[in-house]
Amino acid sequence: MGEKKVNVSEHPIAQAQYRAVVKWRHFLGKGALATGAARKKAIVAVARQLAVDLWRIRTGRVEAATLGLTT
Fold first, then answer.
1. What is the enclosing helix (H) or strand (E) of 26?
2. How does 14-27 read in b/e, with b if 16+ C-beta sit within 10 Å?
3. Domain-wise residue ranges, the chain
4. What's the average model confidence in pLDDT over 11-27?
5. Cβ proximity of 19 and 68 under 8 Å
6. Cα(50)–Cα(62) distance, rounded to whole angstroms?
7. pLDDT at residue 61, rounded to an integer
8. What is the mean pLDDT of residues 29-57?
9. What is the pLDDT of residues 4-18, one digit of tens each?
């Protein structure tokens, strides 16, 4: 219903300007020299930060653009 479909394969890292992704980019980027365990920890760290930031957006404490998120 009017939603824009995004081909994730076109974007190596979705929301690449999001501050948590920027912080952990050295583990998440294509060709990153990180072990599987380190990569998993980075993914969990980004997911946890995203949960907190979504809560902040929902409660009106911050705007998505401030965090580097785009719609």
1. helix 19-28
2. ebeebebbeebeeb
3. 16-60
4. 76
5. yes
6. 13
7. 94
8. 86
9. 554 444 555 677 788
Tell me the C-alpha distance between 42 and 20, whole Å. 9
* Count of alpha carbons within 13 angstroms of residue 28, beta-carbon side: 20
Q: What is the rounded CA–CA span in Å between residue 47 and residue 27?
A: 14
Report the alpha-carbon distance of residue 23 to residue 8 in Å, rounded: 20
Closest CA to 53 of 26, 15, 7: 15
Closest-CA residue to 54 (of 69, 44, 39, 34) = 69
Mean pLDDT taken over the chain: 79
Q: How far apart (Å, rounded) are the C-alpha atoms in residues 38 and 70?
A: 27
